[in-house]
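Please describe what follows:
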Amino acid sequence: MSYVKPKKSLGQHFLTDQNIAFKIVDSLSSSVTNVLEIGPGTGVLTQFLLSRAEINLHVIEIDRDSVMYLRENFSELKNIWSEDFLKADIATKFKGNFSIIGNFPYNISSQIFFKVLTMRNRVPEVVGMIQKEVAERIASKHGKKTYGILSVLLQTFYDIEYLFTVSEQVFNPPPKVKSAVVRLTRNERKELPCSEEFFIKVVKAAFNLRRKMLRNSLKGICENLPEKFATKRPEQLSVEDFIELTCAIEKC
């Protein structure tokens, strides 16, 4: 039987607590069918996913040692992709929608979420364990210091729930920070009334100078902001405000 050693280069911290693993999998809606697990490692979530008869499970794993371990220990797992999630053409591998779950590596969790956004009309739900600080950030409401670029962009298309906190001591090796599990559920917004590319540009420009008023941080994009936004700072704007602001700037 293969033994998989966590690799620092891949940001691997293997969850060892079975109860927490079950709780994470149980956070997936009962209605899901196609599910993609990112970075299954030694299969601590995989075992519970496989126990749900309604789930058509696929896993994607960049670590070849983990792939070998999964093939040796989970003969019922038929769909193992030995690939990098960030580079793989995921959407073409499923017919219809698919939900995503995983203990996401801290060093690429934001990139995972940005890729999810590009597939949002195919991904109705995401359950992920990530660094607690990142979880607080993406679930943050406007008006808070933790509210930022990822908060706005994800909340534009997903409802986000901070589910529970996970201690450092239930991992091998223990990370230096606490973790948390979040659930993203696709909202009803189909598309933006403005250019999505320009919307992203406005949000990023605003938060890149987050201590400045918007009339200063967005000066390079628009000289005359609407008065209702000009003296505000980015964390004061809701998602709807950012959409309204972008629409207004497009008319500048």
Observations:
- The beta strands are 14-15, 34-38, 56-60, 80-81, 99-103, 125-131, 158-166, 171-172, 179-186.
- Residues 196-208 form the longest helix (13 residues).
- The domain at 8-186 is CATH 3.40.50.150 (Rossmann fold).
